């Protein structure tokens, strides 16, 4: 939730400038379009999207596991159910990543999502966790390979959530690229239409409401075409 609330503001502030510029962009976006900033960041940053997908997949599985959705494989039906629970969500995540960023990203994300939920399964099946997700006894030194694997899996998930995700998220916010397409439009400056490059904020009829990179204000553009790049200025770490 912190990432969802803070990252769009950081992205806008670094891309167009803080203060009045950021306020004007948010006003031009309108509240219904504010999620577009985060969506644009996800679509332009495969690492950020992959890490967030893996963690969300694990959280969803942990929630349903606490509700009793991890059966013991005492029959063929229970085995198939356990296999479906362990694979369907990571498979879906992998397919989405493959569509957006290519097969290698899809494969890596799907396998990681599948791997980082096996520790949860082991804890429930060995009795270390009971209904509601509560531990049935205090944590102790690992004695079996399953317990060691569960501990390593929890450590990896914590590392992703506490370190990799924030770094990837803020790298996407400060990379100097637009969250929306850059469009080349004709903008009426009072002396006829003049060419200008805009960050698209919303579409109104046959035109575009966008942030003018040249005039640093929200303007209306017509006869727009998508630019070949989304780069507005160099990333923060190159300045």
| Number of E strands | 4
Percentage of β-strand residues: 5-15%
Query: Any idea what the radius of gyration is?
Result: 23 Å
Distance between the termini: 29 Å
Approximate shape: elongated
Oligomer: single chain
Written as H for each helix and E for each strand, in order along the chain, the element string is: HHHHHHHHEEEE
Quote the average pLDDT: 83
Biggest sheet layout: 4 strands, antiparallel, barrel
* Weakly predicted, low-confidence segments: none
Number of helices: 8
What is the structural class? alpha+beta
Percentage of helical residues?
55-70%
Spatial sequence of strands, sheet with the most strands? 1-2-3-4
3D architecture notes:
The protein is an alpha+beta fold and 239 residues long. Helix content is 55%, strand content 14%. The chain has helices at 2-16, 20-29, 35-44, 46-66, 76-101, 103-115, 118-125, 145-173; strands at 182-188, 193-204, 207-212, 218-226. Strands 1-2-3-4 form a four-stranded antiparallel barrel. The model has no long low-confidence stretch (mean pLDDT 83).
Summarize the structure.
By secondary structure, the chain is of the alpha+beta class. The protein has helices at 2-16, 20-29, 35-44, 46-66, 76-101, 103-115, 118-125, 145-173, and strands at residues 182-188, 193-204, 207-212, 218-226. α1 crosses α3 (35-44).
């Amino acid at each position: 939730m912190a990432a969802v609330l803070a990252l769009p503001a950081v992205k806008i502030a670094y891309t167009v400038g803080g203060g009045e510029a950021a306020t004007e962009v948010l006003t031009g976006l309108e509240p219904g379009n504010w999620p577009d900033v985060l969506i644009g960041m996800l679509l332009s940053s495969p690492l950020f999207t992959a890490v967030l997908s893996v963690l969300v997949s694990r959280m969803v599985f942990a929630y349903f596991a606490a509700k009793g959705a991890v059966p013991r494989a005492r029959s063929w039906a229970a085995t198939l159910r356990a296999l479906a629970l362990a694979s369907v969500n990571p498979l879906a995540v992998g397919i989405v990543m493959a569509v957006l960023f290519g097969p290698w990203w899809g494969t890596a994300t799907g396998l990681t999502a599948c791997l980082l939920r096996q520790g949860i399964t082991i804890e429930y099946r060995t009795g270390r966790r009971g209904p509601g997700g509560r531990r049935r006894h205090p944590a102790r030194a690992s004695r079996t390979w399953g317990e060691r694997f569960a501990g390593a899996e929890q450590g990896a998930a914590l590392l992703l959530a506490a370190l990799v995700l924030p770094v990837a998220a803020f790298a996407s916010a400060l990379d100097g690229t637009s969250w929306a397409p850059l469009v080349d439009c004709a903008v009426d400056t009072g002396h006829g239409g003049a060419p200008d490059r805009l960050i698209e904020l919303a579409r109104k009829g046959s035109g575009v409401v966008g942030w003018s990179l040249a005039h640093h204000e929200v303007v209306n553009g017509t006869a727009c075409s998508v630019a070949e790049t989304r780069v507005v200025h160099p990333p923060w770490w190159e300045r």
